[in-house]
Amino acid sequence: MAECIFCKIVRGEMPCFKMYENEYVLAFADINPISKGHTLIVPKKHFESLWEIQDEDLSAIHLASRKLAHAIRESLKPLGLAALQLNGKGANQVVMHYHLHLIPRLGGSPSLPMTEWEFKPGNRDAIRETAQKIAAAVK
Predict the structure, then answer these.
(1) Are the C-beta atoms of residues 47 and 60 closer than 8 Å to each other?
(2) Termini Cα distance of the chain
(3) Known catalytic residue: 99?
(4) Distances (CA, A) of 81 to 2, 55, 90, 103, 106
(5) pLDDT tens digits for 62-101?
(6) Residues 62, 70, 99, 101: which is the catalytic one?
(7) Domains of the chain (ranges plus CATH)?
(8) Considering the entire predicted model, what is its pTM?
């Protein structure tokens, strides 16, 4: 989809702090993070939601999420990890391209609303450093 921001990131038309990539998915740091290490995993093909995504792409998302969860646990030592995936405007899906959020729950992290939060741009240098740390830990 030409105007989709995640499609632009997948095509290399927009920058990202990449953590993992294979033939089906791309994982990168969320630039409006809820917590340190907030990661997005997107299919390389455009699917709006869980209702449209094909089985092999969905499987690839969740297999990648397990790799990244291990990398997050190894590199950041969180107390827990929230996996959040929203579908449609009624669930507050903002970017209409299927994506899975991995949100590390660190000591002192703010509360985690399930469907909405205030976007606060993060420090890009800190985001990059954390993204590189996680990317280096992916196995």
Answers:
(1) no
(2) 31
(3) yes
(4) 32, 24, 24, 6, 9
(5) 999 999 999 999 999 999 999 999 999 999 999 999 999 9
(6) 99
(7) 5-109+121-137 (3.30.428.10)
(8) 0.85
